[in-house]
Amino acid sequence: MARVLHHSHCLPSSANTHINNPPKIIRLSQKSAASLREICGQGTLKQAFNSVSDLLTDQNSTDSYRSSLEEAYGSILDLCAAQKAVFQGQQIHARVVSSGAALDREFLSTKLVFMYGKCGYLPQAQYLFDEMSQKTVFTWNALIGAYASNGRPLGAIELYREIRETGVGVDSCTFPLILKSCGAVQDLDLGTEIHGFAIKSGFVSVVFVINSLVAMYAKCNCISEAMKLFDGMNEKGDVVSWNSIMSALLQHGQYVEVLQLFREMQKIGTSVNSYTVVSVLEACAELSLVKLGMEIHASLLKSGRELHIFEANALVVMYSKAGQMGEAVRVFEKMDEKDKVSWNSMLSSYVQNGFYTEALGFFHDAQRMGHRPDQVSVISIASASGRLGKVLNGMEAHAFAVKHGFDSDLQVANTLIDMYGKCSYVNYAGRIFLKIPTKDFITWTTFIATHAQNSSYFEALQLFREVQREGMKVDSMMIGSILIALSGLKCVSHVKEIHAYVIRHGLFDLVLQNSLLDVYGECGKVKEACRLFEGMVTRDVVSWTSMISCLVHNGFASESLNVFHQMVETGVQSDSVTLVSLLSAVSNLSALRKGKEIHGFVIRHCFVMDGSICSSLVDMYSSCGNVDNAYKVFEGINCKDTVSWTSMINACGMHGRGKEAINLFNRMEETGLAPDHITFLALLYACSHSGLIEEGKRYLEIMKSKHNLEPWPEHYASVVDLLGRSACVNEAYEFIRNMPIAPTTEIWCALLGACRVHSNHEIGEVAAQKLLELDPENPGNYVLASNFFAAKEGWGEVEEIRLTMKKRGLKKSPACSWTEVGNKVHSFVVKDRSHPQTTEIYSKLGEITKKLQTEGGYVADTKYVLHDLSEEEKVKRLSGHSERLAIAFGLINTNKGTPIRITKNLRVCGDCHQFTKLVSKLYEREIVVRDSNRFHHFENGTCSCGDFW
To answer: What pLDDT is recorded for position 372?
Structure first.
């Protein structure tokens, strides 16, 4: 190893002047030397250094004088080393060189090597070592220690080999230095060889040599060897030995064993020190044994001594990991002295416990109080900024990292990528990613997740392929991000490939199984999801909830309720996410009784009535036709958020209570809450279904001017729908032509529907053409266009549209109605004869129709039959509409006076609307019908919609 450095800059400038200048003869009194030793022992470097010139008094060169001078210089150099005061050490170096006394150069040179090594000035230490003509074992130890403590373990190992070759005998102090280096590079072979040499040399009985061997074996992942050494010790009274083995166990996550050793220490009466306390508190933190940690804290307070800074830091970490932030803050605030670890531990505590806003405030307070942030601080603050979505704070942390050179730290860079990803600044994350010279697995995983979570699905897949080409081992976290991307792409074939990949590589843990369930559900592959779910050996609440959500999302609401009952039977406890999914299923089914059962379940199991559950209950009751119960739930919410208000506004809109919706909106603004896009969508919907034309126009302008919200296509579609329902078809068309955005399919759908109802054939044909051009794969659009042409008896166009649908493989969804009776939901389609009570239902329907004709003057309005049929056939077709079958079934199976609740997947036709009004009057029943647009409350021959739907 070429270690010899012949550069004058390695020494103080004054050290090279003694050749040309005559030396000054000085004498140091023994009394002064003793005084200097005392000052150095107290650690007061400034006082010791300033006293040196006063201590040099006589001009003599006796042996006593030289010995005292060497001792004085040695003492102050040790103090410089301890305090890493290299500037003062260099000045002493210059005095030693310029001194004319016949000093022991080997002794002082060794002290200087030691000082420079401790201060991190390895080249200077090496230079002095190379210049020495004679080297003792102490000199070798000083340089080996310099390499070992300055992150150069291989250099220390090479020096050890040299000392063995030179024949200079090692001493017991050599072993800890070289064993530390073996552990750093995990060189178990050399470590074992040194262990053998220590036994042969008789040093293995020295306690600190054994302790070093224990640490070396632990770092080389041989914890059993470390324990064997510790157990073989004859005397275990040395606390350092206990600390060494505890540290070894902590490195390998054997926290329970650490606590067992601590109890053993207490039994045999071995006194503990700060390092013991820190080890035990770390074990308590990892095992969440906060009670034991508090007992240790109490015993430290009872001892009457000041807490060491290491102990206080460990207490902060222990309390924060247990979620007891109050205790962590109290410990921190009582600390008289705080180091970087203290500030960073407290900052990390806020972040780890979700107090992100408090973390930002604490970070700024720390800077004001003089704490200089480091890499750890930047990582914490960037993480908090990302979770809050506050990109400006994250950018400040990034700028600070760049200014101080922390951005080159890989962990800092990875955290910044994650922060920008969470703030949806993918380009910024990409710039950091490209600048990282050596990317680790976390870098790739974080960057893939950034793309997947920000809808850059193709880019995420490309990065994943790069990872595979690089030959990196993929883990479940990266697979989870890829599944998010595939879910967004709805790419089922790739999902199946990933499914197979996960199985082949043994990555199929419960988290990934749950993720796959979600993805299959998002992609509409219910069979695959069911097969996966049934094959799962272990299912947690997430598994059950994912399966329920999959069924609800894909139109199997009734089946999702059955899965919930199975979940309850297995004893798995539901969470709020499960209940929100169930309430969505009930809303889809309009199954009020089921909804009330779930509401009762929520109350019995003491779920916190938070925003999501309460909003879902409001939606459920309104979707089941019970808007009064929806109001009760809403008014019972203590802290109403924007979602809660929006849910109630939407409920009013669905039930034609437009004025109430506006009043709710005004109340919401009075509370200081800002409405969002969804709130305005619900409000415009309410105006549309209540014929509030001027109000709807005004709120669209308020949305833009007062709240600075750019309308979505859905907002414009609501205004078009509002104008169209109010017979202002020409105005609606002009509104579309003057919009700042290109019309979407939703907008043309709203206009075409209005044209059919109000027989505006000219504009209707334009709307139909635009609709089919924009979305030629949606069967609903063809049905809407077909109905428009059928209404004006354009049977040629109708036939053409139906042929196009057939060629494209598109099918119309059949009209379906369902009603809840007892504890079961019964469904019916047009001319349905599959129900067990079919004969009774059709008999009852005939009876109802006859009564309506004779007593209510009902005459079938065949213009609502959009088929080229005879009048007789049209009447028959109307009589078989699904909602009429549901009404007949309800009258048969419910008691007199009981409301009949029906849900239909399509819009109620005008003839069925009139039919239901008459039934409500002649049979004295309240009938609530929810169609695809809104609710109709029929009572005593009238409808809540005012015939406006």
So the answer is: 87
**Alpha carbon distance 784, 332 (integer Å):** 68
CB 905 within 8 A of CB 827: no
Cα separation, 512 vs 26, whole angstroms? 79
What residues form DSSP beta bridges with 820?
Answer: 825
Dihedral class, residue 120 (left if φ above 0, else alpha if ψ from -120 to 50, else beta) = left
Asked if 318 and 349 touch (Cβ cutoff 8 Å), the reply is: no
Q: What are the Cα distances from residue 346, in Å, to 3, 350, 767?
A: 43, 7, 63
Residue 10 token pair: 């390695």
User: 427: part of which helix (H) or strand (E)?
Assistant: helix 426-435
Interatomic CA distance for residues 211 and 216, integer angstroms: 9
Q: Which of 426, 423, 496, 411 is nearest to 459 (CA)?
A: 426
Distance, in Å, from the CA atom of 515 to the CA atom of 537, rounded to the nearest integer, reads 16
**474 C-beta neighbours (distance < 10 Å), count:** 19
Q: Are 486 and 495 in contact (CB under 8 A)?
A: yes
Contacts of 356 (CB under 8 A, 6+ apart): 350, 384, 385, 387, 388
CB-CB neighbours of 434 under 10 Å: 9
Rounded to whole angstroms, the Cα distance separating 863 from 300 reads: 90
Encode pLDDT of 910-935 as tens digits. 999 999 999 999 999 999 999 988 89
Q: What sign has the CA pseudo-torsion 156, 162, 166, 170? A: positive
**Is the Cβ–Cβ distance between 937 and 625 less than 8 Å?**
yes
| Runs of H (alpha helix) within 573-640 | 576-589, 592-604, 611-623, 627-635
Q: What is the pTM of this model?
A: 0.71
Cα distance between residue 540 and residue 567, in whole Å: 10
Half-sphere exposure of 221 (CA within 13 A, CB side): 3
Contact (CB, 8 A) for 724 and 751: yes
- Measured distance CA(295)–CA(280) in Å, rounded: 11
Give the list of residues 6+ apart from residue 8 with CB closer than 8 angstroms, or none.
Answer: 16
**What is the reported pLDDT for 25?**
36
Q: Are 921 and 836 in contact (CB under 8 A)?
A: no
**Do 145 and 173 touch, CB atoms closer than 8 A?**
no
CA distance 583 to 261: 53
174: Cα separation from own chain's centroid: 48
Do residues 675 and 707 make contact, with C-beta atoms less than 8 angstroms apart? yes
Confidence bin at 36 (pLDDT 50/70/90): low
Please, are residues 650 and 682 in contact by the beta-carbon 8 Å criterion?
yes
Task: Please tell me the number of Cα atoms within 13 Å of 252 on its side-chain side.
Answer: 20
Q: Which residues of 906-918 are buried (b: 16+ CB within 10 A; e: fewer)?
A: bbbbebbbbbbbb
pLDDT at 4: 35
Ramachandran assignment for 374, one of left (phi > 0), alpha (psi -120 to 50 degrees), beta (any other): beta
Please answer whether residues 897 and 905 qualify as being in contact, where contact means their C-beta atoms are separated by less than 8 angstroms: no
What tokens appear for 468 in the block? 């595979």
- Residues whose CB falls within 8 Å of the CB of residue 187, separated by 6 or more in sequence, listed in order: 157, 220
SS3 of 817, please?
strand
